[in-house]
């Protein structure tokens, strides 16, 4: 209904002076409601927030991360050192000190509840930024359970005001970015179904410690046996080496490491992987069953090598 949507757009545009008043009073703003708020918020900062630069963060993008945000704010190379807790404001002293180069900065975050920004560490860093007097955080949330995904404690004490900004505008841009997070979307060069790293992390977070240990052992076996590029699943022509590990060998290793105590438990965990497309099974050249994970070697190295990633 174009007329109704235009009525909502006009109504929200009339709220611009009120939103600016709240920002100037020291509040951070969070916008919720059905419909894309990307054009609305970008129009607001372009028309009303004219006393300082605006940094726009596309939280709905699969590649969005708090490191990218901090790298830009700290004027550092893209490789940002590992953050430690608590995250300290002094790391961006050029924004907070008396001799700060930027007297006022607007941080516009589309989809604060996006996959790369909803972790406790990312929230902590963003809320620390929001607590700086000369930084105003303007954020949108769209997940139906955003209130559960975000930590309510810090948000209730960080001078946030919440506005219903229902627009009913289609999520065209956001959906195109989220497509890369759909579990079955990507296909490898050899036709195998792939998952992406983020989807795998979500699945593994819901499994037991033993299941994650088994995944790590299987992933390491895939890395060790991979005779091809780290960013593809495609095996070079003329290569006969199988990527993965045989069923019997993996069971033997898991039993020796006390990850499983019986073959029934082993099969049950493999069934969980299979149900979530985290396991592929092929017939080896000697007739044995070869197990593998449909992730690129690069993603497996990150998942199996980062502390707490799996």
Q: How many E strands?
A: 8
Strand order, main sheet: write it out.
2-3-4-1-5
- In angstroms, what separates the terminal alpha carbons? 46 Å
CATH topology grouping of the largest domain:
Rossmann fold
Quaternary structure type: single chain
Gyration radius, to the nearest Å?
Answer: 24 Å
Q: From N to C, what is the helix and strand string?
A: HHEHEHHEHEHHEHHHEHHEEH
CATH class of the largest domain: Alpha Beta
Function: Component of the origin recognition complex (ORC) that binds origins of replication. DNA-binding is ATP-dependent. ORC is required to assemble the pre-replication complex necessary to initiate DNA replication.
Domain Origin recognition complex subunit 2 RecA-like: 5-164
Protein name: Origin recognition complex subunit 2
Pfam family, one: WHD_ORC2
